[in-house]
Amino acid sequence: MKKNIIFVVNPISGDLDKSDLITVVGEFSDTNHFHLEVYETKGKNDIKEIQKLYNQYLPQRIIVAGGDGTIKMVAEAMEAYDVVIGILPAGSANGLSVDLNLPNTIEENLKIAFFNDYIEMDMICINGKKSIHLSDIGINADLVKNYEESDLRGFWGYALQAYTTLVDSNEPFVATITANKETIVHPARMIVIANSQKYGTGVTINPYGVMNDGKFELIILKSLDLLLIGKIIAGNMPIDSDDIVIISTDKATIKTDYPVNFQIDGEYCGAQSLLEIHILHKQMKIAIP
What angle do CA 92, 98, 101 make, to 5 degrees? Predict the structure, then answer.
């Protein structure tokens, strides 16, 4: 009996044509005597369709080619099932694969996705929505919103929006944060809710992040002058700075004095003034190097 693998592909993630990738994965699967079932995401009913396929084929693993959004969708579909998810990074936001230190070549990633050991990774629940990586409220979410609405893609589109977003940014908001049985109040430009360490660009925002420790971190950036942004981007997250507060917890509430733009794993989620957050410990199995 051949063992089954379901291969979930987001055909449009990262603006890359996936037909070559599907061929390569098919050949690897044949060589290693697996039966491969390919599913291309359609943007609606995907969760139900993937669950149907799972029940039909009872696969050994589910391999995902896409960005953080696709991985998260598959993880949600498989929430009640015991299956290992393998990742072939192929999205515009590949933050999770950066954090897992996945290699750059497809050959190495295929071996990991099909055969390697796995970790049981936490997810974060924010207002009922799942986050696998990094979410934030404030200036970066403004940027995500502006980028989604603009026509210019890629690095320059991002750089232009970053500049415009900083120039046009609102007054700092005031956040009332309850965590670990205490309540604190801080003015903030941005609060990151982090399960892991790095943004997809490779920038480390949360030096304390461990993806399976049953905790997440809140990183409160009180001011965001260009000097501080420069330090963070250069990889010198100044954790001893008075402008940065980091709280490690498994449950928190954030209230803001006016609705502030919010994003989960690179997807804009509207302006929010209340976030209820808790950890979902060991929610998904992910193959790692």
Answer: 145
SS3 state at 123 = strand
Largest separation between any pair of C-alpha atoms in the chain: 63
pLDDT at residue 238, rounded to an integer = 78
Q: What is the CA radius of gyration of the chain?
A: 19
The per-residue pLDDT for 160 is 64
Give the Cα separation of 37 and 28 in Å (integer). 13
User: Could you give the angle at the alpha carbon of 276 between the alpha carbons of 252 and 239, nearest 5°?
Assistant: 40
State the pLDDT at residue 152: 62
Which among 128, 140, 12, 111 is positioned nearest to 70, based on CA atoms?
A: 12
Residues contacting 170, CB < 8 A, separation 6+ = 142, 260
Quick check: pTM over 0.90? Answer: no
User: Which ranges of the chain have pLDDT less than 70?
Assistant: 14-16, 92-93, 147, 151-170, 226, 233
pLDDT above 70: percentage of residues in the chain: 89
Q: What is the pLDDT of residue 27?
A: 97
- Cα separation, 238 vs 72, in Å, equals 30
Residue 192 backbone zone (phi > 0: left; psi -120 to 50: alpha; other: beta)? beta
Q: What are phi and psi of 63, to 5 degrees?
A: -100, 135
SS3 at position 270: strand
Q: Which of 126, 55, 125 is nearest to 270 (CA)?
A: 126
pLDDT at 23: 95
Residue whose entry in the numeric block shows the structure tokens 């230190």: 101
* pLDDT value of residue 233: 66
Closest residue by Cα to residue 16 from 89, 90, 88: 90
Residues 6 or more apart whose Cβ sits within 8 Å of residue 284:
75, 78, 79, 85, 120, 121, 123, 132
